Amino acid sequence: IVGTLLVRDNGSINTCHEQVLTCRQQPVERSNHAAGRLLQVMVKTLLGSERSMFEVVNKNWPPS
User: Fold this and answer.
1) Is residue 64 in a domain?
2) pLDDT, tens digit, for every residue of 4-59?
3) Is 49 exposed, middle or buried (0-12, 13-18, 19+ CB in 10 A)?
4) Which residue of 21, 37, 50, 63 has the fewest CB atoms within a 10 Å radius of its CB?
5) How far is it, in rounded angstroms, from Cα 42 to Cα 55?
6) Are the CB atoms for 34 and 26 separated by under 8 Å?
7) How confident is the model at residue 1, as a pLDDT?
8) Total H helices, total E strands in the chain
9) How many CB atoms within 10 Å of residue 46?
């Protein structure tokens, strides 16, 4: 059972990797632009959540 699970996981990883490679090989600027915008949104979201976390920590620090 463990062997088949490992093979299945490896297969899914390989298909994901192949999809990424085909996406990279296609010189489609529109998809690259969309991926770039998605990355920007993700980074902004991460930075925003970190910033709000820092604000909460700063407001509650030092503990009274």
Assistant:
1) no
2) 444 455 555 555 555 555 555 555 566 667 777 777 787 777 777 666 766 777 77
3) exposed
4) 63
5) 20
6) no
7) 45
8) 2, 0
9) 10
49 part of a folded domain: yes
In a domain, 46, yes or no: yes
Summarised one tens digit per residue, pLDDT across range 27-41 is: 556 666 777 777 778
How many domains, the chain?
A: 1
Q: Which residues, in sequence order, are CB contacts of 31 under 8 Å at separation 6+?
A: 23
Q: Sign of dihedral through CA atoms 25, 28, 29, 32? A: negative
* Structural domain span for residue 35: 2-59
